[in-house]
Design brief:
Length: 442
């Protein structure tokens, strides 16, 4: 494993910026940092279409598009980027896989590539190049990106999830910070509600925020969808305990969370409706960049913390990994591989991390050295997603079943049903068991 330090980061960024500045639009000159592209010479007249999720942080999109234009300037390959809502990327990717046409590259979610691995180009050469240059892939990212010892996707990053809260409201409720355990966390949520400053977590079809906290809830109590062999075991005493906890927690929520999608808790927090939620760094980013004084004034009061530890006794968090995958129907696979590698090179990736103020964390260990993680202490909690998170197939294998179960929102629906009281914990767990068994056939 190579070691990549902050000094290395600064040297490569400075050198890359200087080299990039020397290149004009359409230049055929390759920088040393663009070595990967000499391995995958784009096809003559190649054009690419990329579909990715809409940004929550403007700096993400701005720098992403700047990097895309830089790629076109260096290669002559025209790249069209389409941005879709988070909930729309998965079905559009599935349609492309089924009909055999559509975007060359899709920037999608979780283990979606495992639903149609035979439709995807083997990108092992790209993954090995990047891993060798940038300190290696985190184990969980390697698991997400590979199938049968070949890479079927390139992990782009991890949209970190953490507790986002108002410090003043937490202190007014009698707490110095976010409790480290689930029992203390419930007490905090009850105290916040009593003070008229409740919290709330997404329980609608929220790809990121809903899935992330619902899986934490399940796993932190020792529940899981399947065991190591892929047997469905979600209808368990541990799961029922997690759902009983969810019911108590839901009683403290602001009304309306059953319909929340990914943008909903951001809006509720910035509007002052809630004091605590589970989210990425986008709430903090939006407050810092807001032109409204009432929102800008929230910045000193916003802080972040890791999710509490439950009865299982160790971190048990899901975070939203996003991966780039290339379909075999692409007429320009070499150009597409060149694009994948280019967007992950330090000269592009480091500025993208910084422009996003850490909204996405790295799948490659070298980028831990990016100064964005320490320039503001409130960023640091989002740095280590790749180190601590579990994959969504936990504790079993990733594959069609795990991807389909996630796409069908089985865990999130189960939590929503039990939390809201529309099902008893026992009935919600039993229904989840039957739904999961449709996908997991051992």
């Amino acid at each position: 494993m190579s070691k990549y330090t902050r000094r290395d980061f600064l040297k490569s960024t400075t050198a890359g910026a200087a080299a990039a500045g020397a290149l004009g639009v359409g230049s055929a000159v390759w920088t040393p940092q663009a070595f990967a592209q000499t391995k995958w010479t784009p096809e003559k007249g190649a054009k690419l279409r990329v579909l990715r999720w809409k940004r929550f942080v403007q700096g993400d999109e701005d720098m992403w598009m700047a990097n895309v234009k830089k790629f076109t300037a260096l290669t002559g390959v025209e790249v069209r980027v389409d941005n879709e809502g988070w909930e729309d990327v998965r079905p559009k990717a599935a349609v492309a896989a089924n009909v055999g046409s559509g975007p060359d590259i899709i920037v999608g979610w979780f283990d979606d590539p495992h639903q149609y691995p035979d439709k995807l180009v083997d990108v092992t050469d790209v993954a090995n190049y990047l891993g060798g240059k940038y300190g290696g892939w985190y184990d969980v990212c390697r698991k997400y990106g590979t199938k049968n010892n070949r890479w079927i996707a390139i992990p782009l990053g991890i949209i970190g999830n953490a507790i986002v809260y108002r410090e003043s409201h937490v202190k007014a409720a009698g707490f110095d910070g976010i409790p480290k355990d689930t029992a203390g966390f419930l007490s905090l949520m009850q105290a916040l509600k009593a003070k008229g400053t409740p919290g709330g977590f997404a329980l609608g079809k929220a790809v990121g925020d809903g899935n992330n906290w619902a899986h934490w809830l399940l796993w932190s109590h020792g529940g899981k969808m399947v065991d190591e062999k892929g047997n469905v075991v979600i209808n368990s005493p541990e799961t029922i305990a997690s759902l009983e906890y969810a019911r108590k927690l839901y009683d403290t929520f602001v009304p309306g969370t059953l319909s929340w999608l990914d943008p909903s808790n951001n809006k509720a927090f910035l509007d002052g409706q809630i004091s605590l939620t589970g989210n990425g760094i986008s709430v903090y980013y939006a407050a810092k960049n807001s032109q409204e004084p009432r929102i800008k004034d929230l910045v000193p009061d916003i802080n972040h913390a890791r999710f509490p530890i439950g009865p299982v006794g160790k971190p048990a968090e899901l975070m939203q990994i996003t991966q780039m995958f290339l379909f075999k129907y692409s007429k320009a696979p070499n150009a597409a591989k060149a694009f994948l590698a280019f967007m992950m090179e330090g000269d592009q990736y480091n500025p993208w991390l910084q422009a996003s103020i850490g909204y996405t964390s790295q799948p490659l260990k070298a980028f831990e050295a990016n100064p964005i993680w320490t320039s503001d202490p409130k960023h640091t909690v989002y740095r280590d997603g790749g180190k601590i998170m579990l994959d969504n197939g936990h504790a079993g294998p990733l594959g069609y079943a795990s991807a389909a179960a996630m796409a069908d929102y089985i865990v999130l629906d189960m939590v929503a049903e039990a939390a809201s009281g529309s099902q008893t914990p026992q009935d919600a767990a039993a229904r989840a068991q039957k739904r999961a068994e449709r996908y997991y056939k051992v």
